[in-house]
Amino acid sequence: MSTFNGLPAHVLLVHVIVVLVPLTAALLILCALWPAARGRLIWPVVGLAVLVTALTPVTVEAGEWFQRQLGMPPVVDEHARLGHQMLYFVPPLLISAVVLAFAHLRQERGKAVGRAAVAVIALLAIATGAAAVWQTYRVGDSGAHAVWNGVLNH
């Protein structure tokens, strides 16, 4: 996908990622730490994690197309490098959400999930959520600098 209604698809998709990655991470952490929230939100969180995991490579691919259109200014190279790294930060959100959903299902079925296991899952959710949000910030910041410093004014 290169353009949508005349705009580079990357410019549109990136806004979805910038909203959904932090939202998914925050809800995942909430579900990991608060059992009442888990009961209501775990399945939407899993759905969001699947969506974000699917959209991230599409956004990266659209960004590669956009980068080819712009040439290779160093600030765009840095943004592209950081954007590619998102492919390593988003799938752990999905893995964490699935592990938490599995633990939730076990508890709903009356099977014990040990405190140590719950603590490890919570730490996994916090770590993957925080890392994904931090990387989203880094990518977005580098893209904003590229735009607002005039590099992408075409």
TrEMBL record:
Keyword Zinc attached: no
Segments crossing the lipid bilayer: 12-34, 41-66, 86-105, 112-134
Domain (DUF2231): residue spans on this chain: 6-149
Keyword set, alphabetical order: Membrane, Transmembrane, Transmembrane helix
InterPro entries membership: DUF2231_TM
Protein name as it appears in the record: DUF2231 domain-containing protein
Organism from which the protein derives: Nocardia aurantiaca
Lineage, top ranks: Bacteria, Bacillati, Actinomycetota, Actinomycetes, Mycobacteriales
